Amino acid sequence: MSVLVVGSIGLDTVKTPVAEHADLLGGSASYAAVSASFFSSVNLVGIVGEDFPKPHVDFFDSRKIDLCGLQIVPGKTFRWSGEYHTDLNTRSTRSIEFNVFEHFTPTLPANYSGTQYVLLANIAPSLQSHVLDQMTQPRFVIADTMDLWINIAKDDLLALLKRVDMLILNDGEARQLTGENSLIKAGKEIRKLGPKYVAIKKGEHGCLLFGENEFFSCGAFPLEDIHDPTGAGDTFAGGLAGYLASLNHTEVTFQTLRKAVVYGSVLASYNVEAFSLERMRSLTAADIEHRFNTLLAASHFGETH
Amino acid sequence: MSVLVVGSIGLDTVKTPVAEHADLLGGSASYAAVSASFFSSVNLVGIVGEDFPKPHVDFFDSRKIDLCGLQIVPGKTFRWSGEYHTDLNTRSTRSIEFNVFEHFTPTLPANYSGTQYVLLANIAPSLQSHVLDQMTQPRFVIADTMDLWINIAKDDLLALLKRVDMLILNDGEARQLTGENSLIKAGKEIRKLGPKYVAIKKGEHGCLLFGENEFFSCGAFPLEDIHDPTGAGDTFAGGLAGYLASLNHTEVTFQTLRKAVVYGSVLASYNVEAFSLERMRSLTAADIEHRFNTLLAASHFGETH
Predict the structure, then answer these.
(1) Residue B226: closest CA among chain A residues belongs to which residue?
(2) How many CA atoms lie within 13 A of B163 on its CB side?
């Protein structure tokens, strides 16, 4: 089965303590779509300007990502510039230019509306809802979000949450959304807002997954070096959604989501090893299985009864 | 088999955002010995003053902890006072009175020197070494430490590390000891200092265990409320050591240590539910197995090959 991915597509300028690169392929939908493409076919919905480099389009195409939903319009592509601090755990946004993204209304091609797996990657919750309005039979809908929308569009986000099966957000955002300091409480509180499942990303500390009376704690892959954390969360969400779509189960279960979270973590662990999506260009299915098995060994301590 | 536990025994005054209690049973050896006692017999080595309340001695005794190595001397018991801040993740020491601890030289009773499992709970590394000097055939030696000793007694600590099988420390201390920001790098670096195994405690994020080309990531028990984090690390170390001693294997393996880390985490998860060691008074073997199985379920996502 296919997964529909909607989100931002942009050109990023990223500075870390050791390097700086300009005009990199970026945006939540770029990371999520490429990550998902390692598991399933992908229908991409997004917008870029006429300045968007052709090689980036070719890269999507090489990953067999369907581009009927990619609008290329007059004007400039969305741009983001950010800087990571010493430990790569915190970053500052240096500038944002919305450009063509400012008047983006995601209108789905007719053949996309029946896509059964939907990943609403990080964009304004009103746009995420607008996409969902056009879906005829979504089987499993995942939304990602960020602190910005909790700050400036909380009502839109709360309205969206009633319509999605799963929310993905990071630890700070989970605390911000609920006012709970305990992530365990926060995960449970967010489920009350609508999503049956909640994944709280904790960066180097892994990820917590909450279901109805079910809980999964996934350790992060033990990386020694991170080169660029940009897009780690989007890559996680894409891998998770792509894995689910690849199974085409009649119902997504908690047990399936455990594996999906691990695959998402594996994809993210590779992505942070290089700037932009560079590591994804050479990634293989064997690489993915290798780290999946490493995480399996790293979490094992007994037999379940 | 028995485990020998040496460390501090004290009276704590603890303030959290919701409560304050004075003259509580505390100290690294108190927490570690009681925790270990749920798995094996314990030989306790420590010192208190004549003001040490008899009920605390009776509590140790009720846990079948051997007290031949407990020195009760003229003077006042070691006292510590600390305050936890809003999220309970940071604390300030308000006062320390070393009292009888200032001139403590741990001399082992003759029947202790052959104990095969040794937990050098958190005290000055010179005292930890002094205890080790008196052991005739230690099979597995675990040391705990803290930031204070890395700051003021690093040479003593480095000398000790060459003689122990395992070091337990928290994430901040691992970074401080190695100068590495990555905990994965830090764990590997510490192994080069001597210990075959290193456990890095991460509080609410669980624990990382490093061996030779082996790695285990243990998630924390999903607690919603923490009442007093004091002694969590000591309780972790005690449960870990007690579990190892209970097996009496000819050799401690990485697979055994995985389970030991989980049992340590389980004991710590109970201990932080109440002030001092109060939760330990009613804890049962069934409680321990219950949370062990919960952690097993919370970490499971596939079969190891």
Answers:
(1) A182
(2) 20
